[in-house]
Amino acid sequence: MPERPDYAALIAGHTVVVERINSGDTGLPVLTQLLRVAQPALGATGMAFVEFTPHGGRVIAATGAAEWALGRPLPPSDPATACLMHGPRVQRVRIDRFTGNLAEELTRRGLCWLIAARAEIGGRPVGSLHALHPTVDGEATAVVGYLASCIAHMYGDQTGLPVHGDGPVVAALADGLAVVDGEGYVRLWNPAAAEVTGRSTGQALDHPLPFPLPPPGQVLDHRLPDGRWLRVASGELPGPGSLRVVTFRDITDQQRRDQERDLFVAVTSHELRTPVTVIKGYANTLTDHWDSLTDADRRKAARVIGQRANELARLLDRLLSSATDLGTGADTPPTAIDLVEALRSAVTDLPAELRQRIVLDLPASLPPALGDRADLATVLTELTTNADKYSPPDSPITISVDADEQTVAFRVSDRGVGIRPEHVERAFERFWQGESGDRRRYPGAGLGLYLVRRLVERRNGWVSLRPGTQGGTVAEVRLPRG
């Protein structure tokens, strides 16, 4: 690591990042560009940013020696998570201070020091920026703290960040209480009101209520500019004057559940309609015109019915799994599996048309992985089906593997339309589609990648997407070594 950061390169690169923001770029692409600028300027071997949610953290951007961890979750119980969430906002830590798999992996890669700085908004952490080094000295700590503050400012703008909708930028659920006068000005504002709205008592008192006031005895659901939802109720306050008491609480999670329920019904009806219509049409044709059809026509009809029935079965499995905890498999302990042999076996079960496109780049042997063979087959089916859908029919879909000291990984690479950098995390959300409406070019329920992530993470692995270096998309699954 250099004694002093390359400030000239850092300022020049940061200027480019700011220009991208001013031109309208947002979210993960800008965040990743900032890390790419910072890494050489700091002399770091790798940079990473972890976004925090109520359920822990996840690596959403990484460069250099940290890129292997992209997509990795950090559970709240992980000692590294606790260290990053608490203590000084900027700290320089020896990796061996941590315990657990993550620390072992970093140490084995020759990374002994970590400079970590939390990105905070109003004292609430939204993420943590990390610079990884074999050794640490010089002035890098202050620079990392500054860059974390810049990232916090990006979160505060609410433009493409947070990546995950349940992030800490969403305020805590608590009932707020206010008293307003006859002209709608706030005369009382309790601490919970400040917590729910983000407006301090000083900002709220003697100012108009920052949301519509429903008539006495009625309830109003109101969406705030930052996307959160409030349920507001009001009543007249007994006594002299025309004071009204207003109560309100954050119902963002409830609104999200209601929207997911409505979306589940809409997606189910839309995606079931096509295969059912085709099956019904061909079945009616066979029933009504059997004698007039040639043997070739009958075989074609039977083949299409079978294909559509398989699609229907897979769709039903996805829908049912997405509404449950993926059955009882989560209670089954993982076993050591031969990843090369398991992948070869899983490929033979793929549809013939898809199987013909598969190119296997597998070594003769590989260290065993901890996982579940049935889950692995499902994951591979979903990833290859996804690659098939978004790439030309005559292009190859490559399956490759590798291993390091702690993990065994396989990748599914296509040469299709590719994934936009700002969509690499959203693609794992339930029901999310890159396109919307009835004119979507690519069919699907938006459940495949959602289920892949759940299956992989319940076995203590992780999955990530990234644009391919020569176009297309690379999906990577990492599992612990057996």
UniProtKB/TrEMBL annotation:
SMART domains: HATPase_c, HisKA
CDD domains, alphabetized: HisKA (cd00082)
GO molecular-function terms, A-Z: phosphorelay sensor kinase activity
Domain Histidine kinase: 267-482
Family annotation (InterPro entries): HATPase_C_sf (IPR036890), HATPase_dom (IPR003594), His_kinase_dom (IPR005467), HisK_dim/P_dom (IPR003661), HisK_dim/P_sf (IPR036097), PAS-like_dom_sf (IPR035965), PAS_4 (IPR013656), Sensor_HK_Regulatory (IPR050736)
First-level EC class: transferase
Catalytic activity entry: ATP + protein L-histidine = ADP + protein N-phospho-L-histidine
One GO CC term, this protein: plasma membrane
Keywords in alphabetical order: Kinase, Phosphoprotein, Transferase, Two-component regulatory system
Keyword Transferase: yes
Cellular localization per UniProt: Cell membrane
Domain of life (superkingdom): Bacteria
EC number: 2.7.13.3
Gene3D superfamilies per the UniProt record, alphabetical: 1.10.287.130, Histidine kinase-like ATPase, C-terminal domain, PAS domain
A Pfam family it matches: HATPase_c
Protein name: histidine kinase
